[in-house]
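Protocol step 4 of 5: obtain the predicted structure for the target chain.
Materials: sequence only (see below). No template structures provided, no constraints applied. The aim of this step is simply to have a reference model before the mutagenesis design in step 5. Sequence pasted as it appears in the construct record:
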Amino acid sequence: MSSFITPIVVLFTSLMLLVGGCASRSIYHPEDDPPPLPVCFVPKKVKVALVLGGGGAKGLAHLGVLEEFENAGIAIDIIVGCSAGSLVGALYCDCPDAAYLKTVLEPISSKRFVNIHYMRAFYCLGLSQEDGMTKVLNECLEAKYFHQLKIPLLTVSTDLYSGELIILGGGPIIPAVEASCAFPLVFSPVCYHGRILVDGGCLDPVPVQVAKMVEPEIVIAVELCSILGKSFPKNILGVAQRSADITLLWQTERCLHDADFIIRPEVDSIGTFEDCPHEKLYDAGRKAALKVIPSILERLRECQEKDMAEGPTM
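Step 4 output (structure tokens):
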């Protein structure tokens, strides 16, 4: 949770949602039998699947990881993203050039994405205006549909009605990314194909199992929220927030269990929505990637030798 969401604000917002939530209730009508989701576009053979976890503003560290992968010649066959990981993943799958994306995102502050207005609690289900993320994605994305991406992408979100994990990899990109990033309380849920969707991190903050579904030879996971903060709660709402953080921590560790390689940029001191210097985040991603890349390259060599020994498949 970001430092700006103080216990008092949480209490105030909860009351406002109870009082004013009925004004927006008519907008959200999940269908009991929603239509099928668009077919996901995934490659037939996947050697390397990269999983990018959530983390809000800390997600820019993913670009540092990707830049070092480029330098090392590690080709990514598919990216699976949750929340901020889906946002960075979409931008990179559209333009696989981390250094270029760094220059594109450099002037964009987190305030472009998160623009809090507490009075929205009277008439909306999210405190931030949603158009900020939409504008950034429209400005930065050349591809508008998943099948137009240069690297296949899967995003995850949570069905607020059924409680199911929703995997999107076909159809329009922007609503899929917005749904994956719809952090409860901050952003309103996203209506998509008869479903009401929120942040994928509610169920699967680092979706390694989703990546395993495409049967890759190697799964690399980048996670940004593995360390519990040292500040201790001072009131009842602080205890509730701390409890949620502990749940997320253990949920993240569970998600990472089947990853072949785990990259952990040191960004735990940075708040979820903190306007942190971008270079600090990029550097954290680069440094963390450099520690693991030698092992990844060794595994890739082993896979290549195995493929050569087995010969071409019919």
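Step 4 remarks: Strands lie at 48-52, 78-82, 153-159, 165-168, 190-192, 195-199, 218-222, 261-263. The two ends are 51 Å apart (CA to CA).
Proceed to step 5.
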